Amino acid sequence: MTFWRIILARRVVIVGAGIMGLLTARWLAAEGVEVVLLDKQQAGKEASWAGGGIVSPLYPWRYHQAVTQLVQWSQAYYPELAALLNEETGIDPEYCQTGLVMSGVDDLELLEGWCKQHHRRYSKVDGAQIRDIIPGSGVESGYFMPDIANIRNPRLLQALLVYCRQSEHITLLENTQLLDVQQRLCGGVTARINTSQLECDNLVFCTGAWTRQVLQQWWDTPINIEPVKGQMIVLDGRQVGLSTMLLHKGRYLIPRKDGKILVGSTLEHNGFDKQTTKQAKESLLDDAIAMLPALASCEVLHHWAGLRPGSHEGIPYISSLPGKPDIFVNAGHYRNGLVLAPAATKLLTNLLLKQAPIVPQQDYSI
Description:
- By secondary structure, this protein is of the alpha/beta class.
- Helix content is about 30%, strand content about 25%.
- Strands 4-5-3-12-13-14-11-15 form an eight-stranded mixed β-sheet. The chain has a six-stranded mixed β-sheet with strand order 6-2-1-10-17-16.
- The two termini are about 40 Å apart.
C-alpha cells in the first residue's frame, strides 16, 4: 500500500508566493496534492501586499466579461474564505462590507446598465446624502454601492502563510531562486533550485509583473505583461472615523478597522522602478483632503509603491504554455489581483486536476 501511495502521489511546484501562489497552494493541498511553493524573497511582499484590497474593480462596468465573471465568483466566495482563514489560523483578514461612494463618473448610462444587468444595488446620491454616509465629505454627487467590500491584504497574506506553513501537503521555500527547468520525456518537469532538483508533475508560474522576464529565460512565449507602478499612502484617521470607501476620479479612500485610512493610487509606467516620490505623495494627500477635508490634520504614517502585472484589458493569463501541457501560468491580473485571486486560483486548480472549470477557460488562454 505504501508503494502505491508513492507512485500515485502528485506534486506541483509553484513559483511565486504572492496571493496567487498561496491560494493555489491552498486549493491543491485541499485535494491532497503535494505542493512546493518557491519565492525568490520573502513570501507575499510584492503587489499582493502593496494593494488596497478593494473586493471590486474600481469601475467594474469598464471591464471585459472575462474579468467580470472571475470577479463575481470571487466576491461570492470571499466572506467564506475570510471566515475559514480566521478559524484555521487565528488571523482575521478583516473582510468588511463597507460600501463605496463613487463620484466623478462620466459614463453614467454604462454604470446603471451594468448594475441592472448584474443585479448590483446602487443609488444616486447628492452632496447631502453623501455627507450622511461620509460626514464631512467634499464630494457633491455620485453613486452609492452598498455591497462592495474590502479586505486587509497584509492580514490575508499572513493568514495564508500560516495556513501553508501548518499544512502537511505544502512546503514553502522562501529566498529560493528557480535556476533551471527541464521537461521530462515521460511527462512532468524537473525544476532546479540552488543545488537541488525538484521532480514534479506540473510547474506553475505565479510571478506577477516579472512573468514575461522569468519565462524568457527558457522559452519564447507570447505573454505580454508589463509592470505598472502604483504608489499609496496610509493616514492615521482615527479622529476622522471614516467607515465607507470613497472613490473620486480614480483616487480612493479605504477605511481599516483600526482607524487607518489608505489613499491610492498612482498609475506609472516606469519599468521595474519601485521608488516612491515626493510628487506622488503630495498628489495623493491633496486628493485625499479634497475628498475628505478633515484628513488635512491626519499624519501620513507610511508611503510605499508596488508593481502591478499589467495586461491587455486587465485579462489574466490562466493557462498552460503553448506546446507545454505540464507548465502553467497564472499572471497578468493588473489592478485586480486581490479581487480576482480566489476565482483565478480555483480555475487554475481545475485545469491542473482536469476538473470542470468554474468559468469557461478559453478567455484566459495564452
